[in-house]
Amino acid sequence: MAQEIEIEFKNLLTKAEYEILLNYLPFPSVGKKQINYYFETIDFKLRQHKSALRIREKNGKYQLTLKEPFGDGLLETHDSLIKEEVTEWLNGNPVPKAETSEQLSKMNISINELQYYGSLSTIRREYIHSGLIYVLDHSSYHNHEDYELEIEAKDKESGLKALETILMECGITRKETPNKIARFFQKM
User: Fold this and answer.
1) CA dihedral sign, ordered 30, 53, 40, 114
2) For residues 132 and 157, what is the distance between their CA atoms, to the nearest angstrom?
3) CATH 1.10.230.10 fits 3-186, yes or no
4) Percent of the chain with pLDDT over 90
5) How far out from the chain centre does Cα 90 lie?
6) 114 in Cβ contact with 130 (< 8 Å)
7) Which residues does 179 contact at the CB level (< 8 Å), separation at least 6?
8) Is 133 exposed, middle or buried (0-12, 13-18, 19+ CB in 10 A)?
9) For residue range 32-87, what is the model confidence (pLDDT) as tens digits?
10) In the predicted model, what is the mean pLDDT of residues 9-28?
11) Which of 40, 85, 165, 177 has the most CB atoms in a 10 Å sphere around its CB?
């Protein structure tokens, strides 16, 4: 099954804090663009399950991902899509895919209930150090921009320690940081 557990720690940043981290950590000088296309039912059944569904466009490839709570992280279920299938999804005709459809059915959500709500574009920079993935994102959606530091870890302890250390070293305040899809829907 195309699934993985994601354990990540996030912190929203001001533009000035983003610039500090861009210079403090060895991120690449140029970021890579990715676009998230978000889906939900009209009565927000995914949110009721603390879950989210998106299509990510990155490097000319498309991946459908369902995120669900799981232990200290998120269970991500993936299916690859081709451009024509993405067009169908965006036009209100979701194409059933094996892995995500199976997980959605466990939540009693029919693929036909899903609607496209819009997109969020991100310029992402990342580097890997000591088994951790450090991510610096600049995202745009609904005429709004935000900045975020994200650390992906294999366990809760190492990820949390890395986040707290970087924030302390750079004098950045820890902030409550909803995930991108939550921020996207808050700005609608």
Assistant:
1) positive
2) 12
3) no
4) 95
5) 18
6) no
7) 10, 52
8) middle
9) 999 999 999 999 999 999 999 999 999 999 999 999 999 888 999 999 999 999 99
10) 97
11) 40
